[in-house]
Amino acid sequence: MKKFMDRDFLLSTESAKKLYHNYAEKMPILDYHCHIDPKDIAQNRKFENITQVWLGGDHYKWRQMRSNGVEEYYITGDAPDYEKFVKWAETLEKAIGNPLYHWSHLELRRYFGYEGYLNSRTAEEVWNFCNQKLQQDSMSARDMMAKAGVTLICTTDDPVDSLKWHKEIAKDDDFKVQTLPAFRPDRAMNLEKKDYLDYLVKLSEASGIMIVSFQTLCRALRRRLDFFASMGCLAADHGLEYVMYHPASEEEIEAVFAKRLSGGGITREEELKFKTAFLLAMAKEYHRRNWVMQLHYGCRRDNNTAAFEKLGPDTGFDCISQDAPTFELVNFLDALNQTEELPKTVLYSLNPNDDAVIGTIIGCFQDSYAAGKIQQGSAWWFNDHRNGMTAQMTSLANLGLLGNFIGMLTDSRSFLSYVRHEYFRRILCELIGGWVENGEYPNDDAALETIIKDICYHNAVRYFGFHLKPVQ
User: Fold this and answer.
1) Paired residues of 238 in beta bridges
2) Which residues partner with 179 through β-bridges?
3) pTM of this prediction?
């Protein structure tokens, strides 16, 4: 019997152990998509207790606590932090086979040096142990990032954001972790939302352009794109129901937009036509700037109406959607490709059944613009567990070039989540090590070192065009 989470956790072969310990383990971390609040970095936040750093905003954990019958009072309510922590401890001991069990214990070990395990019996001990550690000067937000070996992160930022906190971070030459914004224009695209007209007022104010038409909307967004670019932005991100393609004339789009501006109702077909035009316009702008376009889709959000009305979005009530038509995604990419305006694009589907579909689609649009110009993104959200990651990388290897894969991201709001990169790297080395052990790839140290280090770090640096100091 192996010891729980020993040095060779998730590594079952000698090849896997060598790949991880010799090449992957010490590579720095580049987290090109996360939801960290830059204000916490700018102010170098210190957390009072482990509940604040561990459970605040983490709807992964909230979801499991609800599955354990925990009252909302102890999840997002006003319960004392210690009581919330105990409820999480009681939940975690039942999470056998869930990645949260592994992530939580990796976080306890890597950041706090706690080598035991958390359950209802050890909750008080862990609470006291971790809180004592958090009082140390070396446990601030910035120190956690440095301890994890992070070189760069991209946050997720609305076009109307002033990027005030990014400016504050950039002024500090002593802080070595680059913190760049990423452009997330979902609210400008979702004209069916109740607050859309209110949002346009904010976008008009931020851009200095009065939005009275679709053309002026695009002008306002271009001005914000220019501002984001001045702050080092190299990536955009869209959260979509699916990648749609319902082309329409300029006149049709202007008519739909005018109808929405006047407070009129929008049909589903009109919504899809507008969103198609919006996505095409944004994609062309990304291509012009040599940015990366990330498309996250296959998620049905806010399914529990009562909970959404009480708690709002991003609180743990989303699920996988099966309504992503392949032909529309292909037609969208093809329309951009025909005019030579298809940007570097990363496709993430929440539905794991789309792995092979994406693997074949990306092969249709690769060219010399960039190695792996069209990427399948890492196993996302409900798929970022061992089986999901293994399946995604195996499918990508079968249908494309795994050696060009841009690797892992946290997609997280927590400063402790960088252990997910370790989790990913162990799974990557186990997968490739298994192929080596089975005679499916030569035991070529030089080639394997390049593949592992590229997937862990170098590919993302090159793909996004980040300016970082060279890492061996």
Assistant:
1) 295
2) 153
3) 0.97
